[in-house]
Specification:
The complex is a heterodimer. By secondary structure, chain A is mainly alpha-helical. Chain A is built from nine helices and six strands; from the N terminus they run αβααββαααββαβαα. Chain A has a two-stranded antiparallel sheet. In chain A, strands 2-3 form a two-stranded antiparallel ribbon. A two-stranded antiparallel ribbon of chain A has the order 4-5. The chains are: A mainly alpha, B mainly alpha.
Amino acid sequence: MIEVTPENVSGAENQMVMQAAQDYGDYYRHARAMQLLLWGFIKEATPRTVSYNLFLGEVRKVSVLTLLAIVRLHASQSQVNLRMLLESMVLSAYALEHDDITEYYEVGSDGAALVKEQASDKAYKWLEKNYQEESKFIKMMKNNINSLWSHSNVLHGSLNTKVVKPGSFVQTFFDNKDIYHINGFLWNYGNIHWMYLRLVEKINESKKELILIEDFRKRMITLGQENENQKRQLMSSERYKKHRPQS
Amino acid sequence: MRPAKAGRKIMRKLNLRYLVDWYSGSEDSQFLQGFKGDWNRVCNYYINHVSGVTESPGAANYITEKIEAMNKFGRLYEIFLKYKFLPDIKFVNTLDKPFWDTLKDMHDFLGDNPYPQDRTLQKDASYNVRYRGVMLIDYLEILSRQRGRYWILTLVKLSIYLIPIISVGLLLKQFLK
C-alpha cells in the first residue's frame, strides 16, 4: 500500500484530474466549461467595480478548488467549498450594485482591517428582495449542504475507513470512486455556476458596469441546455428513483 | 415571477431555460433529496461493513440477497468463461475497466469458489470471506443496474441449448430422408 504523504497524494490527485474527462465524460466537460466561462466572461469592467472584483476573485478561486475537490474524490471538502462559493457569489452580486468598499470592512484602531459581519446579512436580504428565484435557489443549495456535508459526522468517516480483518482498520485518504455521486456533484457545480452567471448578467443589465464577452449568451444557452439534459439523465437513473421524494 | 408548473414543463421541453428567466429550483431540490438518500444508503453500507456487516439483522438480509445474486452471476460467469461471448459489452459510465477485466477481478475476489451455492455461507463464512463478498457487492450492484442488457444474456443462455438441439434435429432430418 502506498504511504499517505503529501507528495504521494499530490501525484495521485494529479492523475485523477488529468483523467477526469475520460472518467466522467460529459459531466466533467460541462463542469469545466462552466468554470472556464466564469473565469473569462468579463471583457471589461468600470473602475466602479472594485468591491465586485474583490469578491469575484474569491468566487473564481473557490470555483476551481471545488471542481478539483470533486474529481480528486474529496466529497465533503467539495461541498464545503461549494458553500463558500455560494456565499462569495451572493456577496459579489451584491457588490456589483454596492461598490462602496466600506460596506464590507472597517479599519480598527490598530490599523488592521476587520470584516463587517452585517455585510452578508445585507447581501442576503437584498437578494431576497430583488432576485427571489436566485435567493430561494441559494438557500435551498446551502440547506442541502449544511444538512449533510459541511459539519463533521460519522457518515463522512465511513467513506474513508476499511476493515482488513477484525480489529484491523485502515483509513483511506480518498473517498470511494462512485461515478453516480461524482456525476451528481459535477452537475450541481455546473448548475450553481449557471445561476450565478445569469444573475450577474441580470444585475448588469441595469447597472452596466461590466462588458461581457461577445458569445456570452450563446454559451449560456448551450450550457443551460446541457445542464438540464444532465439532470434528466441523473433523474432517470435507478439509484435516484430508489430515493426520490414521494410526491 | 414563477411560471405555473405546466408552463415550466413546456419551457423545459422548448429549451427556454435561459430566455424566460426560469430556474428549476424545486426540481433541483427534489433531485438533491434523492441524491442525498442514495449517499446515506452508501454510507450505511460502509458503516455496516466497518462494524462487522452481519451483526445487524438488516445487513444479514442484505448479504443473503447478495449471495443469491452472486449465485446468479456465477452461472452467467461460467457461460461467459466457456464461450467468450460478447466481449465488448461496455459499462462505460459505471466501471472503469473493460468487461473482461471486471469479470477477472470478480473471479479473483471470490477465489476458488466463484459462485457459492451454499447459502449457509452467510452464517459460517469467515470474516475474510464476508469481506470479499462485500467487495463484490459493489460490482453486483453496478451490474444489476444494467438490467436492460440482461436480455442479451438470456439470448446467450438460450443459444447454448438451442444451437445443439437444432443441429441434431437438422442432422436427424437428413438421415430420415
